[in-house]
Design a protein that fits this description.
Blueprint (H helix, E strand, L loop, with lengths): L3 E5 L4 E4 L5 H4 L2 H14 L9 H23 L10 E2 L1 H31 L1
Parallel strand pairs: 2-3
Antiparallel strand pairs: 1-2
C-alpha cells in the first residue's frame, strides 16, 4: 500500500494511506481542462485553479478538527491526531471545496446582475 504525503508542516507529515483510484485522481482534471480549453477558444487568458492546492489543506484541517472534537466531545483530553488521513476525509474535503467554489461562482453571478441593474 503506497503512502502519499498530502500535507507537511515543520513538525508533522499527514499521509493518506491508499492510492486514490484513477477516477478520484481525475476529478479535478476535466474541470480544469474544460475551462482552459474554453478560454483558449475564446481568446481569453486561461483560468488557474487553486483546488489541487486547497483540497489537501482542507483535508488536513478536517482530519485534525474531527479528531480533536471527537475526543473533546467524548470528555477526554485531546491528543495529537494520527498522521494517517482517511480516504473518506479527503473525499469530503474535495466535496466541500467544490461546493464552496460553486457558491462563489453563484455569488459572482448575482453581483454582476446587481451591478448591471445599477
Amino acid at each position: 500500500m503506497a503512502k502519499i504525503i498530502i500535507y507537511q508542516s515543520r513538525t508533522v507529515k499527514y499521509l493518506i494511506s491508499t492510492v486514490l483510484n484513477s477516477s478520484s485522481q481525475a476529478n479535478h482534471q476535466p474541470f480544469i481542462v474544460a475551462e482552459v480549453n474554453d478560454a483558449i477558444r475564446e481568446g481569453k487568458v486561461p483560468p488557474k485553479s487553486k483546488m489541487p492546492e486547497l483540497i489537501p489543506r482542507v483535508a488536513t484541517a478536517l482530519h485534525v478538527f474531527n479528531h480533536t472534537m471527537g475526543e473533546l466531545l467524548a470528555g477526554v483530553p485531546a491528543s495529537p491526531p494520527p498522521t494517517q488521513i482517511a480516504k473518506s476525509t479527503l473525499e469530503n474535503a474535495t466535496d466541500l471545496v467544490h461546493h464552496l467554489d460553486s457558491l462563489s461562482r453563484k455569488l459572482i453571478s448575482i453581483t454582476l446582475v446587481i451591478a448591471y441593474l445599477l
